[in-house]
Write a structure and sequence with these properties.
Distance between the termini: 92 Å
Helix content: 55-70%
Number of helices: 25
Mean pLDDT: 87
Length: 410
């Protein structure tokens, strides 16, 4: 029976027998690889034990395959191997610092797959004391180890990794630069973020995207120019990420600075003819669950939306008028007033909302307020009639105020 058939049948005991008894390296290697596909098997303990034994094989290829499979199995699988090699009994309830000590020892192993597994394990344990040892692996001869070590340093998030990670931003391997950039973004201190700014020009698309994504963590306007520049990136993924980071940046800056930074963003975006940012902005407004993001997006849409996609922008802003978040409703109303326009599209959308008997009076009031700024004779007539017909004081009060701005009652 083929190894493939054994895997399909879930016959791990026979795969274990083949791994232990076959005299052919290629067969052992394949059996070790396949055993990594059974993380939840009833015989998991036997699988792990067999792979731990295979990892100490005389064949580097079989050892590498066994280590990879132990990593795939997750949980305490790789810990059993590292504990065995370190001469430490790593029981499931062993203290994390005990496990970390064994993993740090394994970082010096001759086999790169084991060094990779050890780096991964330290990332899961998140023991800050392991950061200096992880950063030593940033000079590893195997780029896979450098990448895994950088990733784990980012998961731990200790600021001591900032300088060493910076050195990886010029690594010849794109995968290493990506992991270093993401790790710096996760650490997120001032130095880490400052270090990432030049990375928006990296020749690797994913590095640029990761760096641009991290720019949203700033609490000042320093990355605004970079983010606006990234809106013209040849990669759609980078452009989209830049939009999200701009909104995130506006949400993160101190409230006393947010207005100035919003104005800076608008100034930069208004000087560009690129309207590709509108679609992701609308998506943020419609799909985000973060109040600050949605408010900033609603405000921004009224200042940067052009003729392209105007109808969808209006639909989204009008829908935002119905939201439970009062501040979002106010931002949406101001943006609709900004969009106004001679085509009367805003007026028609708002009148439809105002004339709908099923709409909440608070929502109608917000729409009426906006009509007082963008409406014309049609709005004046509709609001004049509404004053006499409505049963809601807030609607009547808002209608009186709007009509006064439109020339008074008929």
């Amino acid at each position: 029976m083929s190894l493939y058939q054994l895997e399909r049948d879930g016959d791990v005991q026979e795969l274990i027998r083949v791994l232990r008894e076959s005299e052919k390296e290629r067969v052992q290697l394949r059996a070790a690889e396949l055993l990594g596909n059974f993380p939840d098997h009833d015989d998991r303990r036997d699988v792990v034990s067999a792979l731990v034994g295979a990892a100490e094989s005389d064949s580097d290829a079989v050892t590498a395959a066994a280590i990879d499979s132990l990593s795939e199995l997750g949980g305490d699988a790789i810990e059993q191997l590292i504990g065995s090699m370190a001469g430490v009994d790593l029981e499931a309830d062993a203290a994390d610092w005990v496990k970390a000590k064994a993993f740090m020892q394994a970082l010096d192993a001759e086999i790169p797959e084991l060094r990779m597994a050890a780096a991964n394990g330290l990332g899961r344990l998140e023991q800050a004391d392991s950061v200096p040892k992880l950063t030593e692996r940033f000079e590893d001869s195997d780029p896979r180890v450098r990448a895994r070590a950088a990733r784990s340093a980012g998961k731990i998030g200790d600021s001591r990794a900032t300088n060493p990670l910076e050195s990886l931003l010029t690594d010849p391997k794109g995968a290493v630069r990506r992991e270093a950039a993401e790790a710096l973004g996760n650490i997120g201190n001032r130095q880490a973020l400052q270090t990432l700014l030049p990375m928006y020009e990296d020749d690797n698309e994913r590095v640029r995207r990761i760096a641009v994504n991290a720019f949203g963590n700033f609490e000042n306007d320093k990355p605004v120019d970079y983010l606006v520049e990234a809106l013209s990136d040849e990669s759609a993924a980078v452009r989209r990420t830049a939009v999200y980071s701009l909104i995130e940046l506006l949400s993160n800056v101190p409230s006393e600075r947010s207005h100035d930074i919003r104005e800076t963003v608008v100034e930069k975006l208004s000087s560009s003819d690129d309207q590709s940012i509108v679609v992701p902005l609308v998506e943020i407004l419609e799909e985000s669950t973060q109040a600050a993001q949605r408010r900033n997006t609603a405000w921004l849409l009224g200042r940067v939306a052009g003729d392209d996609g105007r109808s969808r922008v209006l639909d989204s802003l009008v829908e935002a008028l119905k939201d439970d978040d009062q501040m979002l409703r106010q931002f949406a109303a101001t943006s609709l007033a900004e969009l106004g326009g001679e085509d009367n599209m805003v007026e028609r959308r708002l009148l439809k909302l105002v004339e709908d008997d099923g709409v909440d009076p608070q929502v109608k009031g917000q729409a009426i307020f906006t009509l007082g700024k963008v409406g014309g004779e049609r709005s004046r007539k509709a609001l004049d009639k509404l004053i006499d017909d409505t049963e809601h004081d807030i609607v009547r009060k808002k209608a009186f105020s709007a009509i006064s701005k439109l020339g008074g009652r008929i």
